[in-house]
Structure formats: structure tokens, C-alpha cells
Amino acid sequence: MKDDPNAIIKERLKNIEDRIARLSFLKAHLFSFKEDIVKIDEPIRVFEGISLFYYYSLSQFILEINKLFSQDPWEYYSIPKLINHIDSTIKYVIWHKQKLTFQEITKEQYKLGELIWSGGEKTEWFEVATGDDLNKVKKIIKSQNEAIEQNKEIIEQVKLARDKVIAHLDKDFQKYNIKIPLESVAKLLNLAFNIFNVLNLEINGSSMHVESKAISSIKPIEKFNKIQRLIIEKKRARVENISIEELRDILK
User: Cα separation of 23 and 62, whole Å?
Assistant: First the structure.
């Protein structure tokens, strides 16, 4: 084994973490578009360009999710490859450990009604797992594989879409059911997020938090189009000014 048996694991974890963060941002924008497009009252042709952008962004989203769960030998940074590596070297992996020590209350303090509130003193260290601890981490690894297996159907659908249409256009692509709802692909991203946090907490003692809020890309275009149409209408009516109230109604 190398001097640091966790080196490969940490490298893979970092790579997966970065990709999950970027995909979470993309997911937020895809959902924002999907929710906003059904609310607009403008002609759909106004949004043809951005709709095309949505289509290719969703395709890229599917591609990246497929990479995260791929079992292909050339996909080095996938979650299954990370789990398999941990499982095969589990006796050498160095795990994060911690304990909290709380201040004891004496009988005198208790009798006097003195309550001592403390978050405790945290002690952290890293060590190889043995005995019951080894059995515990083996169960953790097994549960991650089981979580992937429970979502096998969606993972296979994503791979089929990738293989037959997105990465390659199969001559019989129309035979396959490749219409995958955004919600299904997002479910796999959530699965990746949860697995990452479980493993990273056990290895590095930390977890990631992602809060991605997307600013609507449709509403500004819709408002711009309404203002542009209002200007044309005013010119045709030979009206020189647009009132603040008219603009406020559009921009609200």
C-alpha cells in the first residue's frame, strides 16, 4: 500500500464533490425553466432559442449523471468505482473518528440546582477500522451498493438514452423509450449527493451542503417581449410616451 492509503479515495471524493455541486446548479436552472415555461402567455416562438438550450442542457445533465453511476472500466471517477475501491481496500482505509466529552456535574452542583450547559469537547482522529468498527464500515459500504441497486431501473434508462441518442445516434434509436423525466434524473443526483455525504463523512469527517437557486431565464425575456410589443403599439397609435403604470404592470 502507499504511504497514504486514502489518497485515491480522497481524490475521487473531491472529483465527485465538484461535479455534484455543478450539477446541482444545472438542476436548479432546468427545474426553473420547466416551471416557468408553462406559466407564460407569450407566443412560444419567442422562446425557441432558450427551449433548444434547455433540451441540450438536459441532455448534458443526463450524460453527467450517467458518468457518476457508470460501471464502464474507463469511467475512473464514478461512484460505483469509488465504492468498489473502498470495499477492496477496506482493511487499509483510514477512517475518521470522533467523540464528545461532557463535563460531569458534581452532587453538590446538582443539589444546588446548578445546570451546566455545554456542547462538549470534541476529539477527532483517524485510524484503521478493526473488530466491530470494521463490521460497521462494511455495512455502510453495503448499504450504498444497495441504494444504487434500488435505483437500477432509472440508471439503466439513463445509460440507454446516453448510448442510443445523446452520445451516439443509433440507427434504430426510435425503437427505444428514451424520454426520461427531469424528476427521475434529479432523483439520481440526490442519490449521488447522499452517497457522497455518507462516504465523505466517514473518510474526511465532513459533508457537503448545496443550495442552488436559479434566477429565471424566461421571465426577463417575456417582460422584454411585452415591452417591445407595447412600444410598437404606441408608435402605431402615434403615442410618444409610455406611462409608469404600464411599465409597472409588465415588470411586476
Answer: 10
Residue 66 CB neighbour total at 10 angstroms: 24
Maximum alpha-carbon separation in the chain = 90
- pLDDT recorded at residue 105: 65
Cβ atoms of 99 and 123 within 8 Å: the answer is: yes
Cα separation of the two ends of the chain: 63
Contacts of 145 (CB under 8 A, 6+ apart): 80, 83
Query: Which cell is 88 given?
Result: 477492496
- Report d(CA 131, CA 61) in Å as an integer: 42
Residues of the chain with pLDDT under 70: 1-3, 42-46, 102-120, 177
Beta-bridge mates of residue 94: 128
The 10s digit of each residue's pLDDT in 169-196 is 777 777 776 788 999 999 999 999 999 9
Here the cell at position 119 is: 456542547
Q: Of 71, 56, 60, whose CA–CA distance to 19 is shortest? A: 60
C-alpha cell of residue 126: 483517524
Look at residue 114 in the predicted model and tell me its pLDDT.
Answer: 55
- Asked if 52 and 93 count as a contact pair (C-beta separation under 8 A), the reply is no
Which residues neighbour 138 within 8 Å (Cβ) at sequence distance 6 or greater?
90
Strand pairing class (121-128; 94-101)? antiparallel
Which residue type sits at 191? L
